[in-house]
Amino acid sequence: MSNGGGVPGMAPSLVGSPWVAGSEDALVGFVLTGGFGPQVLMSRFDFLSDQEMANLLTYIRQAFGQDGTTISADRVAHVRSEINVLN
To answer: What's the rounded mean pLDDT across residues 48-67?
Structure first.
């Protein structure tokens, strides 16, 4: 939903989410891969450029998280390269 509240039973809330307010690397990795584990049913967003991903996640952190820090395109590129090494 536009307020970040999610949809019960379908999409979790972004507001107060430990993923949104937590580690930058974990958040980037989560969104690039579509989640960690078989119980996660989120689409991958690895088609976004590093700058697009950085802009999106910075917006989400500033709008719905408790931490308004900026995520850089360089950070996204670093995490993306780490994920590619694991695959």
So the answer is: 90
